[in-house]
Specification:
Layout: H1 4-17, E1 22-29, H2 34-44, E2 56-61, E3 66-72, H3 76-92, E4 96-105, H4 112-122, E5 132-134, E6 147-151, H5 155-167, E7 171-175, H6 178-188, E8 192-195, H7 204-215, E9 220-225, H8 230-238, E10 243-246, H9 251-262
Parallel strand pairs: 4-5, 6-7, 6-8, 8-9, 9-10
Antiparallel strand pairs: 1-3, 1-4, 2-3
């Protein structure tokens, strides 16, 4: 089955461009096969809460064990109604392993990409079995520090910046190559990514391209590199970077520019 994030993000972006409502249901599930997904589609049908036909899209993330249904043109009320049917079906067939989370764009968020990534992050927190939770874009205020993902193959740089930013009150996640950086980006949905361009497996450009494809509006990206050519600077900004800093760098200046981007 197709990976949930790129499949849903593509559909959500199209709905966002057309300024149409779109419901999302995420459910913690046992491993599903392509055949079992087809069976679920047949059994659940395509009728919404008001009895009308609904365009539905299904996806399953095997690694996160998340089953997702996207309902085109559906507001939160109809999405909730359909989620009740989904819950009953998954429980009856002993497929449900936790809670369900629902949302509707644009009711639940100003950004479809941000909503999807935050929903996936929220599903990492265990919920009561069979509970249907409603995603809140602006929950009760919490004093949560901003989060930074550091992607650099130089362990010394990672260690130094990790300690420096943690002492400044930031939540810091470290990745040593581009592939690891992509995986951790999807896990933590950071406020800022600080990446080098010279990375193993996936280079910095490839990492930025993948982040841009998944959620262009979710995180800011800062490039921290020893590449000084104008073409590298221009290419980085063209691919979505918000700032470009060359080594050697001043930690004080770096922090000031981080604050400007995410605080």
């Amino acid at each position: 089955m197709s990976n949930l994030v790129p499949v849903f993000y593509e559909h959500l972006s199209k709905m966002e461009e057309k300024q149409l409502a779109c419901g999302v249901i995420l459910a913690a599930c046992k491993t599903l096969t392509k055949e079992s997904i087809e069976l679920i589609k047949q059994d659940l049908g395509t009728r919404s809460g008001d009895g009308s036909e609904v365009a539905l899209h299904y996806a399953y993330d095997k690694n996160k064990q998340l089953f997702g249904i996207l309902l085109e043109g559906q507001k939160l009320s109809n999405t909730h109604f359909y989620a009740l049917r989904v819950k009953d079906y998954l429980q009856e067939h002993k497929l449900l392993t936790g809670s369900l989370l629902i949302a509707s764009f644009p009711e639940s968020s100003r950004s479809s990409g941000q909503m999807l990534m935050r929903m996936i992050q929220e599903m990492r927190e265990p919920g009561a079995h069979g509970e249907i939770k409603i995603y809140e874009q602006n929950p009760a205020p919490k004093e949560e520090p901003a989060s930074i993902l550091l992607v650099n193959h130089d362990e010394t740089v990672n260690e130094f910046l990790s300690i420096y930013f943690q002492r400044k009150g930031y939540l810091v996640t470290v990745a040593n190559d581009g592939m690891d950086g992509m995986e951790k980006y999807q896990e933590v949905a950071p406020d800022l990514v600080i990446t080098d361009l010279n990375l193993p497996i996936l280079n910095g450009y490839q990492l930025m391209e993948k982040i841009k494809h998944i959620s262009a509006s979710m995180s800011k990206i800062m490039v921290l590199t020893d590449k000084r050519l104008e073409e590298d600077v221009q290419k980085s900004f063209a691919m979505g970077a918000s700032d470009y800093i060359t080594k050697p760098f001043s930690p004080v200046e770096l922090e000031a520019r981080v604050k400007r981007l995410i605080l």
